[in-house]
């Protein structure tokens, strides 16, 4: 009886794993196929002739290298600024004496109900007349604003785990409050800062709708916008698309694999348990 | 520790400014725009009362999108939760290589819905799609199905992709909650002669209930506000049959340039979500008493 349970558990775990990985495997296979093998019957589950033509086409003929640089630039700075801003407000929220804590939490909750795509037309209408569209710095500003609420909640969770006694000790030693934050509190929270940064980075890396709305010129597109202009074409080049999809998802995947443990800590402590 | 009012003020100020400019001001602008004639093809900006709302309601695609939103949310949430909870229970006891296993099985969480939609769009392809091929090989279908260009299948195909995407979130959150249940409780229950099922109902469920309530609450909101997968898989097609409210909003902006009606749809979504959150929290507080 017990053996049966063990076997069933292994089987169930195996099914979950295969289902999770299958799309990734299929994207990889597709990206390595030539145009003729893409549509021939029977469907091949591993390319007969492996070719890197799709990747070459993507990087040479399309501006994918440019898109990638733009994505890195935008995500890096948005996540960095969001992290700094959110760790200030997260710190204040973590220390209970702050009376408006509940109102702040409510406001942050409201921002979850109003995501970027819902506001993209009004942002366009507000920012367009003053010339703030098609500009990567404006995109960074917007992404920062979008990431601040959730990052604050995550940082709050991490700060709550730090005993207040070490802060008191630092203050007695004559540190100013801001000094104390940078010299004592932030270093202790390093894993939390890293996790929040990774979370924000991946979310900015993945953002699509605002970027479509605000970026027009070819030289400013990010990866998702570049991929999206593929979809608009009548005949989608699935080989190049698959290669592009892999370039879009691998960094996000690696960052999450690296930071997952701490991100989970931040999410469960900051948001879920309150 | 935090006592100094000035210190608090300057610590909160940057967050407040960012959130105001990026979310609150545009949200207010959006509510105004919902009552304005804001069609970019023929821009008058006149205030027209509820005309954008009546325009939206009289559109059969809108009515379809409301129904689709309900199906999309309920099916996705139910199956994401059930499968995610099952996965969390399977992962509860340690085994060799669990760290690597979770890193692999949880990866969909990191990927954007848009990219996931592209992957599944290719897998659901009517002629060269691998899902058709697998179903044929398994003998479950006799001929290929045009999943994404058949109105009977388009929405459900997107739901399959959405379920796949959402399992890790629940598994991660519930696994963390399961691991915080004190082991002594189970040992005490064993001594009292409670079987595994009793233990699950009487210890596990009550203990993780707050996490279940919080995760399903926030996930419901995220799924309503999650146009990404449908946007890249079907873009609401064929003929608007697989639109949900959020993808319809996007197509009003991108394809029709009718910001007024788009804003009206946005206001409707906000009202639905605020009402939902209010009743959900009220109900779960009185029922659960946690």
Compute the CA-based radius of gyration of chain B. 23 Å
Low-confidence stretches of chain B: none
The string of secondary-structure elements of chain A, in order, is: HHHHHHHHHHHHH
The CATH topology of the largest domain in chain A is MetI-like fold
DSSP summary: helix tally of chain B: 12
Biggest interchain interface, per-side counts: A-B, 91 and 87 residues
**How many β strands of chain B by DSSP?**
0
Instruction: Give the CATH H-level superfamily of the largest domain in chain A.
Output: MetI-like
Structure, described:
Chain A folds into two domains: 1-51, no CATH class; 62-272, MetI-like fold. Helix content of chain A is 77%, strand content 0%. Chain A has 13 helices and no strands. In chain A, α4 runs parallel beside α7. Chain A is globular. Chain B has 290 residues and is an all-alpha fold. Chains A and B meet through α1, α4, α5, α6 and α7 of A and α1, α3, α4, α5 and α7 of B.
Question: In short, what is this structure?
Answer:
The complex is a heterodimer of chains A (274) and B (290). Chain A has 274 residues and is mainly α.
What descriptors fit this protein?
heterodimer, A: mainly alpha, MetI-like fold, 2 domains, 77% helix, B: 290 residues, mainly alpha, 0% strand
Helix and strand layout, with pairings?
The complex is a heterodimer of chains A (274) and B (290).
Chain A lengths: L1 H30 L3 H4 L14 H8 L3 H31 L6 H13 L2 H12 L8 H25 L3 H9 L4 H12 L1 H17 L2 H6 L8 H10 L5 H35 L2
Helix pairs in contact in A: 1-13, 3-13, 4-7, 4-10, 5-7, 7-10, 7-13, 8-9, 10-13, 12-13
Chain B lengths: L4 H29 L17 H7 L2 H31 L7 H8 L7 H11 L6 H8 L16 H26 L3 H9 L4 H29 L3 H6 L11 H10 L4 H30 L2
